[in-house]
Amino acid sequence: MRPLLITDCDEVLLHMVKHFGTWLGEAHAIDFELGAGDWTDRMRRRDDGAPLTPEEMWEKLGGFFPAEMARQTLVPHAREALATLSEAADIVVLTNLHDVCRTPRIEQLAAFGIRHRVECNQGGKGAPVAKLVAEYAPSVTVFVDDLPVHHESVSRHAPEVHRLHMVSEPELAPHIPASPHAHARIDDWPRAQAWIADRFAAGVPAVRQEETV
Questions:
Q1: Any bridge partners for residue 7, and if so which?
Q2: ∠ at Cα 146 (138, 65), nearest 5°?
Q3: Would you give per-residue pLDDT tens digits along the chain (213 residues)?
Q4: Which helix (DSSP H) or strand (DSSP E) does residue 14 occupy?
Q5: Cα Rg for the chain, rounded, in angstroms?
Q6: How far apart are CA 37 and CA 207, in angstroms?
Q7: Closest Cα partner for 187 from 155, 207, 165?
Q8: ∠ CA 152-156-159 to the nearest 5 degrees?
Q9: 213 with 185: CB under 8 angstroms?
Q10: 164, 182 Cβ separation under 8 angstroms
């Protein structure tokens, strides 16, 4: 049995929020300030300073994906880390996008030299992670994501999975507290690769280890 790495894409493999903010300014005259708190509180119209409603925020995200995905850039060392880890492990990219974005995401990652299975998801990632674990029956599994809500979801649905909290955007990372539901917080791929490789080498489920953030 091979180990399994299940990784998010945006702000883990590819930078997104800063490019999304640039597009909002160029196309919609909306200023997007990176920081803590709800996205709607940080997205404001330039003409009157009014914040966007949640519905307007989701509408703008829908305008970015997939039409503006070409703006995204590769997180440093992500491609190299996945290439090395894939020599011993299976890799699945689990991305929270609508299914219509699956092919564009596959093509986008391939253009950066990342060619692994891609699955789209909406909502919490715990159930799809558990489903992937059941499918692959790996020796050990590691999950990587930038959003604490997904680490909480995975901790409930697949507690045996090692959970690594990563926020690869330097302007955003200082504003995001480490998830209490993750086993570690690492925001760069060289150190993350070493941490993941150690989990793979040990081959021990997370529930048997006493790891803290």
A1: 93, 144
A2: 100
A3: 899 999 999 999 999 999 999 999 999 999 998 876 667 778 999 999 899 999 999 999 999 999 999 999 999 999 999 999 999 999 999 999 999 999 999 999 999 999 999 999 999 999 999 999 999 999 999 999 999 999 999 999 999 999 999 999 999 999 999 999 999 999 999 999 999 999 999 999 997 434 443
A4: strand 14-15
A5: 17
A6: 31
A7: 165
A8: 100
A9: yes
A10: yes
pTM: 0.94
Q: How many helices (H) and strands (E) does the chain have?
A: 8, 10
Residue 96 token pair: 């929270």
Of 180, 186, 183, give the one whose Cα is nearest residue 148: 180
Structural contact between residues 196 and 161, judged by C-beta atoms closer than 8 angstroms = no
Residue 163's nearest CA partner among 175, 176, 145, 188 is: 145
CA distances from residue 69 to 17, 74, 104, 114, 207 in whole angstroms, order as listed: 11, 12, 8, 15, 37
pLDDT value, residue 37:
67
Q: Are 7 and 128 in contact (CB under 8 A)?
A: no
122, 111, 118: which is closest to 132 by C-alpha? 118
